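Here we describe the complex-level prediction in full. Unlike the single-chain runs in Section 2.1, the two entities below were treated as one system.
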Amino acid sequence: MVVIMLEKVPSSVRGELTRWMLELRSGVFVGNISALVRDKLWEVICLKLRGGAAFLLHNADTEQGFTIRSSGDSSRIIQDFDGLLLTRIP
Amino acid sequence: MKDLHALPKVRDSLSYLYVEHCRVDQDDKAIAFHDGGGKVPVPCASLVSLMLGPGTTITHAAVRTLAEHGCLVLWTGEMGVRFYAQGMGETRAARNFLQQARLVSTPEWRLRVVRRMYEMRFIEPLDESLTLQQIRGKEGIRVRETYARLSRETGVAWSGRSYRRDNWGSADPVNRALSAANSCLYGVCHAAIVSAGYSPALGFIHTGKMLSFVYDIADLYKADLTIPLAFHAVAEGQTNLESRIRRACRDVFHDARLLQRIIPDIERALSVLSPSENAEKDFDSEDALPGGLWDPLAGEMEGGVNWATAEEELEQ
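The structure predicted for the assembly as a whole is:
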């Protein structure tokens, strides 16, 4: 399962995602896409962010069971504590 | 959410979180740690142990919250070696604790647990005729060979285990690495023991220390988990050793499914009694439960059981 959350990004980016995933609520996308598609989409998102922010969440074989990637400025930062991902609120 | 049965189990939880140079406080119904860069909320209900390193302070409210969620709190020093730990466990019943006390105090039963613990460390079953002395000898060989093999495989020099906590500088990197890795393992084992309602002090192989049982259980996993990872971490270099070891511990514990195995393993180590010896029946709450049958040799045989043998049945 893959979840992508977008904050203040151009509509072209959101449009690209709706081809592959369900937009459950504004800026929140969920899907069961392959790793290849997921990584490609993330690349596109990172290139076109333009001041917004994005989070990518997917299953992983780690203790937590998932991994998070983030890009852009957001009110929350993902921080890695010896392999455990937590959110930091500055 | 006060229903104890609904609370997360050790097997579904996160093994540990290590923090330093911050203030740990209650945050809403959970906890968070605060430092110069803001605050980081911590999902303490699914955390088995919290390791507090140098520069940390913790509030009364945070400790209360951690206790409510059954998270063990450990204070650690150099190389993550813990010098203080406290946790109550969520199970209020003393049943497991009393059973462990009974086993450790009855020499014949204690010996059975000791043998079972040694057996659990070996892949092949142990010959029943071996004496305890001989089993200890085999274990000594197994441990020595583990160190020697890893030293060969990783190219890291090994000249024996040294425990000098007063002078970390003089200890070689691989000994410091072993101490750091074992500290993570002890924390997780201690937390699981307390969470399952057992005592960390009542050890079977180890004796005389307040964490003897923790060392007993941790020894089930050292040769497979922490000793290899310590050698590999040192082989990769000496920068950031402590942090790399903690990270490696998390991955190794996950791959080995340590949190899922630990409580079943503890129970396996301690189930050495036959049903008739395990006379812990609560007759007050279960009137219909049959009592035992007196026997001149065994003392008591189990009641509610048909003792006719197959041949006796045929003769009828």
